[in-house]
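Appendix B. Raw example, untouched.
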Amino acid sequence: MKILNLYAGIGGNRKLWGDEHQITAVELDENIAKIYKDFFPNDEVIVADAHQYLLDHYKEFDFIWSSPPCQSHSSFRQNICVRFRGTKPEYPDMKLYQEILFLQNNFKGKWVVENVKPYYEPLIKPTKILQRHLFWSNFDIQDKEFEKDNIRTAQIPDLQKKYGFDLSIYKLSNKRQVLRNCVEPELGLHILLQITNLKEK
């Protein structure tokens, strides 16, 4: 398949996908994109605005995975940061819902949009909730149990072990956040297998 991996980060969701697919990853942060390329040298890595890239290139792919920024939606932000740490409130980033609606009405292939559980009732009902993630998709996602996620308290060594990424050689000011942004690799593989199983049928 030709796969588009949007807001790719360092590639948590992609880690167990193997190299049989043609994967294009889009990441806005050049430093993070370089790390992704180190881990996945066979992928095409593009430093760009993923939201705009989707609009311009969606017809070129068979499967699209999008993980728009979650910070402005997260229940963690509302329940902990805003109430107890004085973090300034902000508008939720509506690119999340723009992309869901866009893919629902324009894309002919398979797609999934991932985000964290929000502090509000989702404006569009998700297809599936797994672990701490909501998924919107145009295919069925099977239930599966995953190890309990302690991401809110986990530190860099724990996160590196959990996701299988060693970032010790990289200079990043927000290393823990970069790791926390990862989708668990086993979960990413679980989603991809739903697509490959459909194609085999």
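End of appendix B.
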